[in-house]
Amino acid sequence: MFERYTEKARRTIFFARYETSQFGSPYIESEHLLLGLLREDKALSNRFLGSYASVESIRRQIEGHTMVREKIPTSVDLPLSEECKRVLVYAAEEADLLSHKRIGTEHLWLGLLREEKSFAAAILHERGATLERLREEFAKAPPDESSFGRIPKLRRIPLEIHGFAMDAEYIRERVKGFRKFNWHWHKSPWKAHDLAVGKDGKLSFDVSLAADTKDFDLKKGGWNKDLCAICRWELFESSDQPEHSAGYTNGRDWVCTECYEKFLSGPDFFATTNPEIT
After folding, report:
1. How far is CA 30 from CA 27, 124, 203, in A?
2. According to CATH, what is the number of the domain 7-139?
3. Which is it for the CA torsion 276, 175, 227, 33, positive or negative?
């Protein structure tokens, strides 16, 4: 789905998913995507929203508007809301209109503004950001140029995990978040989890809902796959694929064996092996 996205745009989606998990929301909404843009594209955020204080006020506004639930593990691959799906469709259309081959953060900004009834669009309109103004600005320069005062691209260092080359900067940010706390990790076989499934199709790991209300049914083993919280490697029950059927967990998040042994079990990998990107 994101093959056409630039590296910055992909990280924006990643940050949007992270923000969603911290609020405990079941879907990635437009406001989570906006928070992802504020994290990833600070240069454009400050340019079009005026100041750092304005950016911080947006976070406070979203926090005040959102019901905060129990945090969802970051390994859970949260789905996009229908509203957010439309934003991404609009972003692709805006890229086409500008004759840009790839979809970047600038197109995501435009997509948010085109979803006029979304909470994110309302926030941006309040601060003077309009679709016409941003379109005009983006049309003045080719994508991924620094003419908007963007942060220069970091030098990318390939890092191989499970035989695939991955962006070291992306992995470093994921590892940094886990090394920030002194988690106890233990190896465990991955087992499917039971789910409570609502009549409206919504899911919950709180299976007591199925016993306490008529609005939920119990689905045994309904959660049959997880993703490594660092590299997104799939984890699932298997008798013949040990690299997928076991990992390390802190009781909430899961990481694959390779990521645990490389990044979490010993000294900081990036400080000792790749100090240039710390």
Report:
1. 10, 11, 20
2. 1.10.1780.10
3. negative
Please, what is the Cα angle at 84 between 105 and 232, to 5 degrees?
70
Per the rule left: phi > 0, alpha: psi between -120 and 50, beta: everything else, 130 is beta
- pLDDT of 170 higher than 60: yes
Residue type, position 167, single letter:
D
Residue with tokens 């220069």: 152
Is residue 228 over pLDDT 70? Answer: yes
- Sort residue 172 into left (φ over 0), alpha (ψ -120 to 50) or beta: alpha
Extents of the domains making up the chain: 7-139, 159-277
pLDDT over 90 for what percent of the chain? 42
Task: Over range 216-224, report the average pLDDT.
Answer: 92
Tens digit of each residue's pLDDT (9 = 90 or more) over 58-95: 888 988 888 878 888 877 888 999 999 999 999 998 88
Single out the residue of 186, 25, 4 nearest to residue 101, CA to CA. Answer: 4
Instruction: State pTM to two decimals.
Output: 0.52
For the record, the structure tokens of 139 come out as 């049309």
> For residues 223 and 217, what is the distance between their CA atoms, to the nearest angstrom?
14
